[in-house]
Specification:
Blueprint lengths: L8 H7 L2 H10 L6 H12 L5 E2 L10 E3 L4 E6 L1 H4 L14 H24 L3 E6 L6 H9 L8 H5 L3 H6 L8
Parallel strand pairs: 3-4
Antiparallel strand pairs: 1-2, 2-3
Bound molecules: zinc ion.
Length: 172
C-alpha cells in the first residue's frame, strides 16, 4: 500500500527554489547517516545482534533487534520534528509548504509506530541530537536496552562481531 518515497519528489521540486531543493535533498531520509552509524556502533560494541532497513516492515525501520522484538528509528531532528529541539527549526520562506511537509512526516511516523506496536514490536526513537557525545547516546539507549538484554549478551562479543573489528583490540 505504501508508495515508494521517490514518487513524491517531482511535486516538491516544482514548488521550491533550486537552493531549497538542494538542501531538501540533502535532508531526505537516507541510509547509513552519521547518527545512524553512531547508534549501530553503540549497539555493536555491546554485542547486540541487529538487522538493518528491513524491507516489508512498516516504515522500514533503520535498526531491528529481532531477538528483543524491538526496532530503533534514528530520526533527524529537523525532518521528523524533534519537539523542543533547536534543530527542528522552520524555514522562513515557503513556510506553509514546509509545515505541510512536516505534518505529513510526523503523522506518517505515528502511523508507522502504531502499526509496529500492533504487531508486537517495541519502538524506540533515537533523535539525531541524542547521538552526539557518547554519554548522550548511553543516556538515551542505556536506560531502555540493558533491562531487556541478558547480561551475558552484553559482555560476550559474538564471533561475527570479532571478525568485523579484528583490526581493533576486540580479540581477547
Ligand atoms: Zn533534537
Amino acid at each position: 500500500m505504501a508508495r515508494a518515497e521517490g514518487s513524491r519528489q517531482n511535486g516538491v521540486a516544482d514548488r521550491i527554489s533550486r537552493e531549497q531543493r538542494r538542501w531538501l535533498m540533502s535532508r531526505v531520509r537516507s541510509k547509513d547517516t552519521k547518527p545512524e552509524m553512531r547508534v549501530r556502533s553503540y549497539l555493536h560494541q555491546r554485542g547486540y545482534r541487529y538487522r538493518l532497513h528491513v524491507e516489508g516492515m512498516p516504515g522500514k525501520p533503520d535498526i531491528v533487534l529481532p531477538r528483543y522484538r524491538t526496532v530503533i528509528f534514528v530520526n533527524g531532528c529537523f525532518w521528523h520534528r524533534h519537539e523542543g529541539c533547536r534543530r527542528a527549526s522552520t524555514p522562513k520562506t515557503n513556510t506553509a509548504f514546509w509545515e505541510r511537509k512536516f505534518r505529513a512526516n510526523v503523522s506518517r511516523d505515528e502511523r508507522t509506530q502504531i502499526s509496529l506496536q500492533c504487531e508486537g514490536w517495541t519502538v524506540l526513537v533515537v533523535w539525531e541530537c541524542q547521538t552526539v557525545g557518547s554519554q548522550s547516546l548511553a543516556d538515551t539507549l542505556g536506560v531502555v536496552l540493558p533491562t531487556r538484554i541478558p547480561a551475558k549478551d552484553i559482555t560476550t562479543p559474538r564471533l561475527d562481531a570479532l571478525q568485523h573489528s579484528s583490526d581493533r583490540d576486540a580479540i581477547r
